[in-house]
Design brief:
The protein contains 2 helices and 5 strands. The chain is α+β, with helices and mostly antiparallel strands and 91 residues long. It has a single domain, classed as Alpha-Beta Plaits (2-Layer Sandwich). It has a 5-stranded mixed beta sheet.
Length: 91
């Protein structure tokens, strides 16, 4: 199954972006994680069926209602070590 790492920039911290990501990824049965980065961006890894991963990446371009995404970088990534989707501490 494909895995990607995304980095989301803009107004994405303090707007429930991580909680929204956990809910959306779980709804799509994806594995991976999401965390805030100290520079104000959000980083996530998504792994699962290609169509579900692609749909999640597209959803991240919008994010939750209070977010204002200005940039989304996507690159291939190794699959996560654990099943399920979780929120990690800030890195």
């Amino acid at each position: 199954m494909p895995a990607v790492r995304v980095r989301v920039s803009g107004r994405v911290q303090g707007v429930w972006y991580r909680g929204w990501t956990v809910a959306e990824a779980t709804r799509r049965s994806l594995d991976g994680w999401v965390r805030n980065l100290r520079d104000g961006s959000v980083e996530a890894v998504f792994s699962g069926p290609a169509a579900a991963v692609e749909a999640m990446v597209e959803a991240c371009r919008r994010g939750p209602p209070a977010a204002a995404v200005t940039r989304l970088d996507v690159e291939p990534a190794p699959p996560p070590d654990a099943a399920g989707f979780r929120q990690l501490p800030t890195a």
